[in-house]
Amino acid sequence: MAFEGNVVDRQYENQEKGSAVVSFSTTLARHGLELKRGVTTTLQINVGLRCNQACRHCHVEAGPDRTEMMSRVRCNLTVLAEENRKELIEVCQAHRVGIVASFPSLDAAQAEAQRGRGVFSKSLATLKRLNEFGYGRPGSELELNLVSNPAGAFLPVSQAEAQKRFQRDLDERWGIRFHHLYTFSNVPLGRFRRWLVESGNYGKYMQKLASGFNPCAVGGLMCRSLVSVDWNGNLFDCDFNLAAGIYMGGRKRHVSEMAGPPEPGELVATSDHCYACTAGSGFS
Ligand code: SF4
To answer: Is residue 47 in some structural domain?
Structure first.
């Protein structure tokens, strides 16, 4: 495997004391791996923390009361249903923008427990509208993909099985089509971490993530090919490290200091929340 080497020691390791798991860097080392950048191809922009929803699992704790913002652009399924945002679908269609939208569950109560009251029916209405604009139709180049994440302190089911079930049920019950479903573990940060701690589930959840460590998932991790920039221009290896306040490669850098993408081979800063990306089939 291309990730030979020793431990990636960052000062952030073990910052989540009490997680009752071996540190992520130690697990990588035990498998003879280290987490280094490949070719960086993606710039992810976190435009800010203001959101019309305040989902229970949100790792950046976004919500209607947050003021951190880069610009006035933001999008999710329910915001596309708002009266003064309806033109966004037309804009996306005209520019051939692919859409990846959170749709956690086929069960209304579960979805709303996670993302707020009324979210389920608004999401269905928006998906139908996206289909009307050509999104998600078989053979359509207008990509519509969904993301589902568990509603509690457990790992997601197999992605392939979940995709079949979501495609069958959404089509049969509501006539809705989409292309692919991604299933992800919730990352133990922000609002979700607080809920885990308060409900006494934190240690058990971390153990589940750590025991699901899949060394084959390391090669496809998004931090190997992505840079995340926050609303102030600071750079991070991914949006989860942004939420945890861990700068790219462990060193504070501003986007204005960068002549180009980071070099292949740079170490990625890791911490124990990285276990959420390497559990099961992984988070790429
Ligand atoms: S949280 Fe995931 S994407 Fe971010 S640095 Fe860790 S493994 Fe990479």
So the answer is: yes
